[in-house]
């Protein structure tokens, strides 16, 4: 499985990898992006099976990146991640094709469940 982690905080990238490994999900090839523009570019090149996409980022937010990723790659699964999980952002992301919305800080079992469901 190929997983693209998109978040402007490097600590989140480290935490996701550590959590998934601890939850027994080890057969993953990772790629990283740190803003919405980079997310689109890496998604094009890396062709991940799943994107974990933060909502609040510099340059282009996660909602705008989600729109572009799903337009170019409608089959690509995207899970939105945010500490600002407002109802309108959740609703908008799901309407645009996100498969789930996870609130930060992560519940380790919830993150693992959503990743496993996307495999």
Strand order within the widest beta sheet: 2-1-3-4-5
Q: Which range does the strand content fall in? A: 15-25%
Compute the number of helices.
Answer: 5
Biggest sheet overview? 5 strands, parallel
Provide the CATH topology: Rossmann fold
Distance between the termini: 7 Å
One letter per element, helices H and strands E, the order comes to: EHEHEHEHEH
Going by CATH, the homologous superfamily would be Response regulator
Count of separate structural domains = 1
Class in CATH?
A: Alpha Beta
Runs in which pLDDT lies below 50 for 5 or more consecutive residues are none
CATH architecture title: 3-Layer(aba) Sandwich
Principal-axes shape call:
globular
Could you say which structural class the secondary elements and strand pairing correspond to? alpha/beta
Helix content: 40-55%
Rg, Cα atoms, Å = 13 Å
- Give a count of the beta strands, DSSP E runs of length 2 or more: 5
Mean pLDDT: 93
